[in-house]
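User: What would this chain look like folded?
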Amino acid sequence: MRFVMRILVIDDNQHHLNSAKELLKEHKVTLCSTADEAIELLEPQYDDVIFHRLWSEKGWEEASQVARLPYWDVVLSDLLMPAPKRNLSYFGEKFIGQEMPVGWAFVLRATLEGAKFAAVVTATNHHNHPASALLDPLGSAYWEDNRENAPKFTINGATVGFYHAPMIGVDTVPCSHCNVTGRTDKICSFCEGTKKEQGKNWALVLKALTS
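Assistant: Here's the prediction, encoded as C-alpha cells.
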C-alpha cells in the first residue's frame, strides 16, 4: 500500500520543478522556487481559529501545540540557490541573490520541525562547484538504479540523504534548450535528442530515501 505524503520541493530551476510535478503527482506536492519562500514554508503553520480561541485560556505554548497543522512528510531541496533577503542588515544585503549552498539549512530546519524524510539533491557536477564536491562522501556522485544502500543519516528522528541527482526526461515538457537554439543539424547535448526537458528524477530520490 502506498501512502500519500505531503512533499515540499525547493528548487530555483523551473525544469526541475516541472519534473517534480510530473514524477510525484501521486503525492500532495508543493513547489517552491526561491529561498525566501522556502524559509516561510518551512516554518510551522497553525489553525488561527483554534489558536486564538485557546490562547487566552491555555496560554501561547499549549495553544500552539493544539493548533499546529500537520507538517511536511518530506522536504527535498536543491543545494545551490540565490541567497534570501530575510533578516539581512545593510551589511548583509550585498549577498542577496548570490548563489549559495542553502539546501543544507533547509533540510536541517525540516528535521527540527517534524519532517520524516529530507534530502539535499543537486544537479551541479561535483567538478564544477566545491559544495557539490563535498557531497561525494555523503552520497555517491554516480547514481545506480538501486540506491537502497545509499548513505542515509538520522537527524532529529528524520531520515536524511545528500544526493547527486539522477536525471530523467519529462514526457509532458519539451526540451527548453532545443526550443531556445532551434538547431536541427546537431543533437542537443542537454536532452540527447529526446526532445524532452531533463529534470531531476525526484521519484528515484524519494525511493532511495524512503527504502
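The chain has a mean pLDDT of 84. If you want, I can go into more detail on any region.
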